[in-house]
Amino acid sequence: MAIIRFGDWPELRNPWAEFERLRQGLDRLSGGYRAGEAPFGRATVFPALNVYEDQDTVTVKAELPGVDAKDLTISLEGDTLTIKGKREAKQEEEKLSYHRREIESGSFSRAVNLPIKVDPEKVTARLTNGILTITMEKAAEVRPRQVNVITE
Amino acid sequence: MSDQELKVQHKQEVQHRGETTKPEKYFIPAVDIYESDADVTVIAEMPGVAATGVDVTLEDDVLTIRGRKEGEELSHARVLLQEYETGSYQRRFTVAETIDQNNIKASMNNGMLKVVLPKAAPAKPRKIEVKVE
User: Fold this and answer.
1) Which of A13, A103, A106, B112 has the fewest C-beta atoms under 10 angstroms from its C-beta?
2) A135 falls within a domain
């Protein structure tokens, strides 16, 4: 006869455990189909990016609090935009005792493939309040061109 | 300097905040808290918050930091990829030490809020003598 520990039977410990598990699963499912919201991806490489498109420009935004502009390197190679940088660790002073440490320091490098061809000569990057905004102008050949209709 | 690679920290929304009149999202900022002999320092990550949007209060030993994100309107822009959400930040802490309330300093730099809470001089113990009559 198999010996089963009492604690291995969740229904003995908590008869509602199975229902709770089901409910959580359903919550997760319904959370995935929020109507009317933008496609929401989960970044796995730091930093998380938001990419917007305008009529003439493509804008890439990233939240980089505590990163100095001089520590950032942004390069564009073909359609691949690379953001590299590092966040410096604070100077470790003596006699400091930490209560919480949630802000990490270290380096990062992220490459993203742009869905639209951009003009490599017309790229600007700004860092304001910890948000990096890279604005790139679309290449002339992919820009929508208005066609005038001539009446005869 | 560390060679550690940074990982993505997904934002957590503030729970049990009560309903707001505006459909706003509030996130919990990541913080560092350290203490020296003279003060307690709180550093919070609040990207997108300008110095004018920060609100720091200390009431009944509860420190509240709040950062309102500046409205950025990307009108006519189409979202191609969204990996992070934007919103305001809020977090509360109970401060154990006695703080000199008049000398709290807060500064904002590159999306990082720094609040320095100087410790108040320890109250001198007052000895009460009992007279025998």
Assistant:
1) A13
2) yes
Q: Compute the distance between CA of residue B64 and CA of residue A116 in angstroms, rounded to an integer.
A: 44
Task: Give the residue among A104, A147, A133, A124 at the shortest CA–CA distance from B77.
Answer: A133
Distance CA B77, CA B75 (A): 5
Give how far the C-alpha of residue B107 lies from the chain's centroid of Cα atoms, to the nearest Å.
11
Task: For the beta carbon of residue B17, count every other beta carbon within 10 angstroms.
Answer: 10
The answer for A 65-124 residues in CB contact with B (under 8 A) is 65-68, 86-90, 93, 95-108, 115
What value, to the nearest 5°, has the Cα angle with vertex A142 and ends A139 and A144?
115
DSSP A21: H
Best of A45, A70, A91, A102 to disrupt the B interface (most B CBs within 10 Å) is A102
Domains of chain B: 26-71+82-118 (2.60.40.790)
ipTM above 0.90, yes or no: no
Instruction: Identify the pLDDT of residue A37.
Output: 46
How far is Cα B81 from Cα B84, in angstroms, rounded to an integer?
Answer: 9
- Residues of A within 8 A of B50 (CB-CB) are 129
Query: Residue A11: inside a domain, yes or no?
Result: no
pLDDT in tens, A16-72: 777 778 887 777 666 554 444 445 566 778 888 888 888 888 899 999 998 988 999
Q: Which domain holds residue A69?
A: 37-89+105-142
> In whole angstroms, how large is the CA radius of gyration of chain B?
20
Per-residue pLDDT reduced to its tens digit, A85-137: 988 876 666 677 888 888 888 899 999 888 888 888 889 999 988 899 999 99
